[in-house]
Design brief:
Layout lengths: L4 H10 L4 E4 L6 H8 L7 E8 L2 E8 L2 E3 L1 H8 L4 E2 L2 H9 L12 H4 L3 E4 L11 E5 L4 E6 H7 L4 E3 L2 E3 L14 H11 L19 H11 L5 H9 L2 H12 L12 H24 L12 H20 L9 H10 L3 H8 L1 H13 L5 H9 L3 H11 L4 H9 L10 H13 L15 H7 L3 H12 L2 H8 L9
Parallel strand pairs: 3-6, 6-9
Antiparallel strand pairs: 1-8, 2-3, 2-5, 4-10, 7-8
Helix pairs in contact: 8-11, 9-11, 10-11, 10-22, 11-13, 12-13, 12-19, 12-21, 12-22, 13-18, 13-19, 14-15, 14-17, 15-16, 17-18, 18-19, 19-20
């Protein structure tokens, strides 16, 4: 299917020339543009929003971030983004393929707001490219694109991602430079409170006890069992994890003792309980793209995939398997600090992410929060005296060129994050496997894809584990 009938009919009626450019089914428009050497600033994307007055379409360049707060102030409306499944159903109901969202409001009978950076510049040979609803990009001249949307309102509400400044890796994270950066890029009413990040929550008592257990030369199995028995959520998570076939146990796991003694062992059990107990020290929303539910699911899947990657490392393995699992589980916990200390801005972050689905998540969080989760996460791990390997994984898991001490741990998490794209849980905008990290660890692409297959075949069991959220205690 090149174009849905409703889109083809509309374009033909406009009597404007256009050309169809096929692209691969597993590509985003941005990736297709890179492969076809099309300027990504000329590729258009669409976001749907709604309020009591009905839906509205926002149209902007693919490499721009939609400034949610600016758009709401511009329209004087309290808009909410349509979640991914709702937006997909809207376009599919008009014959479009999943995830394809043509920026043609007249076709769908809804009003639209178009960012002025897409306005015609007077050069007829400048082209615009957009999703047609099928398996092709539509190419039209810039001035003709303006004619297609001449009934829409044209305003400035998007920011090029290249214009977003950020704290470079060479800069020290302090309350002063964090506050300075945030004040430049976030709405004025959200400026207050950035300094509160300087006050990290204290380490929960449970985390202190678990770290002491983990540091013991020979962890006492009975002591680990007694600890897990104190918290029904922790106990349930340990039992669920022990039942996942990835652990290789073929018998029945009918008790906490069986799970810890016969299947997981004390160190793996401690790692799982550490991740859950750390989460209980923070209060963040359960829902949203970076809410607690999505964060916990991503963390559990990442840790499981890291565990599978460790199994295929050349002998002798260059990492501690239990420590690698812990790195996968804790690498994104900087979001907990952001959500706990800056709840209003974190709420806004979830809205921004919902309407900037194709933008790199770190660009969006940099713009809204003024910092990135990996910076805050490493800061948290360091302040709580977690192992250096865990700090490295939190700090460097988005970097492809990491050659720092303990790089093997951050490289495992980086690879796992890229691979999770294949089960619909990747947080990486770039899903290409990092060649340097793969080479340094001695992992081939075929081996990595086999690890993904193992995760894919265990999704039901992993989802059962994810369903037991590490919710904070009631006050």
């Amino acid at each position: 299917m090149n174009l849905p009938d409703i889109v083809r009919t509309y374009l033909d009626r406009q009597q404007l020339p256009y050309r169809l450019i096929p692209y691969r089914s597993n590509e985003t428009p941005g990736q297709a543009a890179e492969r076809l050497d099309i300027p990504v600033r000329r590729v258009v994307r669409t976001a749907l929003l709604k309020d009591a007055a009905g839906p509205i379409m926002a149209v902007l360049p693919y490499n721009h971030i939609l400034d949610f707060s600016m758009l709401c102030r511009l329209l004087q409306r309290e808009l909410e983004p349509l979640d991914g499944s709702e937006a997909t159903r809207f376009f599919q109901s008009h014959g479009c393929k999943p995830e394809s969202r043509p920026p043609l409001p007249a076709v769908f009978g809804i009003p639209a707001l178009v960012d002025t950076s897409l306005a015609a510049t007077g050069g007829g040979e400048i082209y615009i490219y957009f999703e047609g609803g099928g398996d092709s990009l539509v190419e039209v001249r810039s001035d003709d694109f303006h004619k297609l949307l001449d009934q829409a309102r044209w305003e400035r509400f998007a920011i090029p991602t290249n214009d977003l400044d950020f704290l470079g890796s060479h800069q020290t994270l302090t309350p002063h430079n964090l506050s300075s950066l945030t004040n430049r890029y976030t709405p004025a009413q959200l400026h207050a409170g950035t300094e509160s990040i300087a006050e990290l929550p204290p380490m929960p008592q449970a985390v202190q006890e678990l770290l002491a257990l983990r540091a013991a030369p020979h962890a006492d199995v009975q002591e680990v069992i007694r600890f897990a028995e104190r918290d029904t959520t922790l106990a349930a998570q340990v039992v669920y994890w022990a039942r996942v076939p990835l652990n290789g146990h073929h018998g029945m796991v009918d008790s906490l003792q069986t799970a810890i003694e016969q299947v997981l062992g004390p160190k793996n059990s401690i790692s799982l309980m550490l991740g859950s107990s750390m989460g209980q020290g923070f209060r963040v929303p359960v829902d949203g793209p970076v809410g607690l539910q999505a964060l916990w699911q991503h963390s559990v899947y990442c840790a499981a995939l890291v565990g599978e990657l460790v199994k295929i490392l050349p002998e002798p393995p260059c990492v501690d398997p239990e420590l690698a699992y812990l790195c996968g589980l804790l690498h994104d916990f900087g979001y907990l600090v952001l959500g706990h200390t800056l709840p209003a801005r974190f709420f806004l972050l979830n809205r921004f992410l919902a309407v900037n689905r194709h933008a790199p998540i770190i660009d969006v969080e940099r713009y809204v929060m003024g910092a990135e989760h990996w910076q805050i996460g490493a800061w948290l791990m360091q302040s709580w005296n977690l192992p250096e390997e865990v700090i490295a994984a939190a700090r460097w898991h988005h970097r492809e060129d990491s050659t720092h001490p303990h790089a093997e741990y951050s490289n495992l998490v980086l690879i796992a994050n890229r691979l999770l794209h294949y089960v619909g849980l990747g947080e990486e905008h770039n899903n290409r496997l990092p060649a340097l990290a793969m080479f340094m660890l001695g992992i081939t692409r075929d081996q990595a894809m086999m690890a993904v297959e193992q995760i894919h075949s265990n999704m039901a069991e992993l989802d059962s584990l994810c369903a037991v959220l590490p919710l904070p205690p009631e006050t």
